[in-house]
Amino acid sequence: MRASIAVLPGDGIGPDVVAESIKVLHAISDRFGHEFSLQTAEIGGGSIDKYGDPLPSQTIEVCNDSDAILFGAVGGPKWDDPSNNVRPEDGILAIRKSLGLFANLRPVKVYPSLINSSPLKPEYLKGVDMLVLRELTGGLYFGKPKRRWNTSRGRRGVDTLKYTESEIERILRVGFELAMGRRKKLASVDKQNVLESSRLWREIAVEVSYEYPEVELEHILVDNAAMQLIRNPADFDVIVSENTFGDILTDEASVLSGSMGMLPSASLSTLPGKKRSKRVSLYEPIHGSAPDIAGKGIANPIGSILSTAMMLRLSFGMVEEADAIETAVDSVLSEGYRTADISGDGGDVVGTTHMGDVIAGQI
User: Fold this and answer.
1) For residue 311, what are the domain limits?
2) pLDDT score for 129
3) Least confident window among 119-128, 239-248, 267-276
4) Of 36, 106, 221, 268, which is least packed with CB atoms within 10 Å of its CB?
5) Whether residue 357 sits in one domain with residue 241
């Protein structure tokens, strides 16, 4: 197969980890005979410095002309001034909206070899294997009005949490479809005791559930969900939530795996499936730009490498190839290789490039 991939390394450790994903892609190409055409484009803070825009038009063109997008991270202290009118994060928000990337899928798995790397006791972590599905183009991050202003009584700011029926229905439908392929359990997260948008969310969840009688639907308030993720994480199968709740819960869930550096994600514009989609999707590790360790060669590339496996499976239908990457990661971890963030149980601590080398070597 020939496939065109837009590569958006971004800021901070983004270029560091994406470089290792590209190394793994080359290993897949060599083993399976595929041809990957990679085109790099600018996004985030570096793009602001170069073009005055976190998402220039040429980057959108590259993405639209590609079959999938491999993304790193954006942001850093250089661009963190709250008074700035343009921020690196505007680039990733804009690309999600521009490409209709409404469903963010984040698998959370605890590798047996890393069970002592998490701050949680091992007995809480056995059997943890869940998918967290986050709505990505609605809610507080995109609702209007969104602004700050000054009054005679002081400064004010407003963000709007708004959802339409169609936005809620489509993300819930993805959740039910994913649950059908797993343990048939779906936890729908809301805050219906306080928020009108959550009352609408719960109402629609019930309506959609009638089409999936095999799936056990659980409604759970977001504060309780946050607690149960720590107290009883293995009970979850598929979790679906609105944008802000999903953002917070998936960062919390990363603690289960031992590090945010371990978790991949896919941002989809259509239902996930084995067949190649005509609509482009984006794949990225969930960690941020981590500017304090950028360029030091110590970042964990596994989240980015596993995102590459998700890309091969979901955008290109390359199941065997995705399995090869995931098996290589599991094998390398079982052999004791560790980056600094997951070295709590000892092992052979290696840098970013070395970790990419051994994973690619396993492939």
Assistant:
1) 1-102+263-363
2) 93
3) 267-276
4) 221
5) no
Q: Are residues 238 and 315 in the same domain?
A: no
Over range 310-337, report the average pLDDT.
Answer: 96
Write down the pLDDT at residue 278.
Answer: 60
pLDDT (tens digit per residue) in 69-126: 999 999 999 998 888 889 999 999 899 888 989 999 999 999 888 888 888 888 989 8
Match 């190394």 to its residue by tokens. Answer: 23
Given the residues 16, 67, 111, 141, the one annotated as active site: 141
Look at residue 330 and tell me if it is in a domain. yes
Residues 126 and 217 in one domain: yes
Catalytic residue among 163, 191, 212, 341: 191
- Domain membership of residue 107 (yes or no) is no
Of 53, 129, 159, 247, the catalytic one is 247
Of the residues 235, 251, 345, 357, only one is catalytic, namely 251
The average pLDDT across 332-356 equals 91
Task: Specify the pTM.
Answer: 0.89
Number of structural domains (the chain) is: 2
Would you say 195 and 156 are in contact if contact means Cβ atoms under 8 Å apart?
Answer: no
CATH number assigned to the domain comprising residue 339:
3.40.718.10
278 is catalytic: no
Answer yes or no: 223 catalytic: yes
| pLDDT tens digit sequence for 167-220 | 999 999 999 999 999 999 999 999 999 999 999 999 999 999 999 999 999 999
| Residue 191 a catalytic site member | yes
Six-digit token string for 254? 């990363």
**Residue that finishes a domain, picked among 224, 257, 290:** 257
Asked if residue 45 and residue 174 are part of one domain, the reply reads: no
The active-site residue out of 49, 65, 223, 292 is 223
Pick from 207, 222, 257: which residue ends a domain?
Answer: 257
Do residues 116 and 345 lie in contact, with contact meaning Cβ atoms separated by under 8 Å?
yes
Q: How far is CA 292 from CA 11, 76, 103, 209, 299, in A?
A: 12, 9, 30, 45, 10
CA angle 224–226–228, rounded 5-degree value: 65
User: Does 141 qualify as catalytic in the annotation?
Assistant: yes
One domain for residues 245 and 298: no
